[in-house]
């Protein structure tokens, strides 16, 4: 066995601009099973007093018959699950979101599985050594039903210009 100091260090990181593949579908695993505690904590932490997230008795009388997972938790978890695979340590900035959609609710006990495709990528005209990558994130529950989609633009380092 090689000595510890002889081993090649490999650090987990995201992708540099050149490594983003416009033909790939990146599957972010493991999934995340959402608990009641997750939803209540996130909802109260963000000062969202929406009864659909907090009041079981009231929510039972509403259209869905139960509390819904806060859609901002769904969005945050869907995007967050992509970080280790796509942008960990290679991102310069999150530039913005477009087309955030929640076509189906996420409930306590559901498992969120996320995936990402690269919609577009181009070198930055104003920031040498960096590129803009447009990502489309999709979140599905354990039954494969789409619960969220979002298009996100990120500024990332190019391989040769990484700090």
UniProtKB/TrEMBL annotation:
Residue ranges crossing the lipid bilayer per the database entry: none
Entry superkingdom: Bacteria
Family matches, as Pfam families: MaoC_dehydratas
CDD domains in UniProt: FkbR2
Domain MaoC-like: from-to ranges: 25-139
InterPro entries: HotDog_dom_sf, MaoC-like_dom, MCH/BMMD
Family of this protein: Belongs to the enoyl-CoA hydratase/isomerase family.
Protein name per Swiss-Prot or TrEMBL: MaoC family dehydratase
Biological source species: Mycetocola zhadangensis
